[in-house]
Amino acid sequence: MVLAFLSCAAFSAFCAGKKDKTSVKTEGKVEETVAPVVQEEEKVPEVTVPDLTLNFKGLDLSTGIEVDQKEFVPAKLTLVNIWGTFCQPCLVELPDLEKLSKKVMWQRVQVVGILCDVFDTSTKGELDLAKKIIREKNVSYRNFIIAKNTPWLKGIQAVPTTYIVDSKGKVVLGPIVGSRSADEYKALVDEALEKIKK
Q1: Quick one: DSSP state of residue 62?
Q2: Global pTM exceeds 0.90
Q3: Which of 3, 56, 116, 120 is 20 to 30 A removed from 12 (C-alpha atoms)?
Q4: In the prediction, which pLDDT does 4 show?
Q5: What DSSP string describes 101-119?
Q6: Residues of the chain with pLDDT under 50
Q7: CA 78/CA 193 separation, integer angstroms
Q8: Cα–Cα dist 11/115, whole Å
């Protein structure tokens, strides 16, 4: 699993310093990943699951059309991938997410991306970069840009970070931290589908 770490002060900056291995717990499974070494006097921020049912408003990156919570209603599940234009692991997995979006469509599951470093107030240059990436990676699923203070970005310590949510925006699985293959994401989608059956 590969991660790009975010600065707590700015989404577009990497955390500086030496790195060490640590464990991240995701839905009862402990997975090894890479994290910055924290100085003894520093406090490690807690990873919290944000309330994704609130205050979801933004713009469709491709069309500029406003989007809100209703975007999740037609699907049983939505895989929400939070990524950054600066994040190489994020860019590498975009084709896998595109492949996944085609594979799970028949299950009424959709894939959407949310940019963590391009916002509704971003400059044209930043928006153009994001659009160029989407175009060059042949991504057809929708990507959204949202306000900096949205709950969807609260507590995000590294990208890519992914949530699988139901039609109300309630988290079924996640946070899933780090890049995955299409097959690995498909297995997680199937697990989430089983969960909402219960």
Answers
A1: T
A2: no
A3: 56
A4: 55
A5: HHHHGGGTEEEEEEEEEEE
A6: 2, 5-47
A7: 11
A8: 10
